[in-house]
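Listing S7. Sequence submitted for prediction.
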Amino acid sequence: MVSDEAVIGCPGTLVIGTRGAAGPGEVLVRIRGGSETFLAWSEEPLPEGTPVLVIESRGTRQVDVMEWTDPVGDPGSDLPDGPR
C-alpha cells in the first residue's frame, strides 16, 4: 500500500458517517487545490456532516480521522468569558 502523506493534517467533512471499529465512512477533504474523497476510519462512530481532521494515512485512499473544530473559524474561541 502506498501512503498519501499530503492528506495528513487536512480538515474535511464526513459525507458518510463512520461506525468506529465496525467500519469506515467517507470524508471529503480539500487538498491539492481541489476536493477529494477518502474512506474514513475513526475510533468512535461519527455522524454524517461531522467536521474532522485527518490524523493518519492507511494507504491508498484510506485515512484515520478525528472530530475537529477549527479554532481559527471561531474568532472568539480564545477570548476569556465575561464582560468586555
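Caption to Listing S7: primary sequence and predicted C-alpha cells for the chain studied. The radius of gyration is 14 Å. The chain is about 0% helix and 50% strand.
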